[in-house]
Write a structure and sequence with these properties.
elongated; 5 helices
Length: 170
């Protein structure tokens, strides 16, 4: 049964974290597209007036909404990852190992970055655009940085899970 939970844990990580990483990383581009399109009602709103190769405001907003929704939904699905991981750790009697405790701390940090920084920032951008307000292009840089931190934390968790280095245990 431990093997089943371990497989489910790994699959949940792949299925949930991959879309969060990709959608979160693409969201800053959507912010730049929204900023370039200008506020609702601006001269560049109509697709015919937008330069070739760029999106109109409606398309840019649709992209931002979709990417935010993907990030939000898979964040909820991602809650299963630590739950199954904890079951596996208890069954394998490795809960006190240093590498596992470190990965738990990094997972918690990643969850906090996603829940309290990335998702609310994305929601503010989408809400501003829906209200027809101008979208600040500098939000793209902040979101790229925050998503990068989230992705880096999960990278470190993956390294710890695979390498299982000898770290002090409790």
């Amino acid at each position: 049964m431990t093997t089943v939970f371990l497989v489910l844990h790994v699959l949940a990580a792949i299925i949930a974290i991959g879309p969060i990483a990709v959608a979160g990383s693409l969201f800053p581009r959507a912010v730049r597209q929204l900023a370039a399109a200008g506020p609702s009602g601006a001269a560049g709103e109509a697709d015919a007036e937008v330069p070739a190769g760029t999106l109109g405001r409606a398309e840019a907003l649709a992209n931002a909404r979709l990417l935010h929704r993907i990030t939000k939904i898979y964040a909820v699905v991602g809650a299963a990852i630590p739950a199954m991981g904890l079951i596996v750790a208890i069954r394998m009697n490795i809960l006190g190992h240093g590498w596992l405790l470190t990965s738990i701390a990094l997972t918690l940090a990643a969850a906090l970055v996603l829940a309290f920084l990335v998702l609310p920032h994305q929601a503010r951008v989408v809400e501003s655009a829906e209200l027809g307000q101008d979208v600040d292009a500098s939000s793209a840089g902040r979101l790229a940085m925050l998503t990068g931190i989230f992705n880096l934390l999960w990278f470190l968790v993956a390294v710890l899970m695979v390498a299982q280095p000898r770290l002090p245990s409790l």
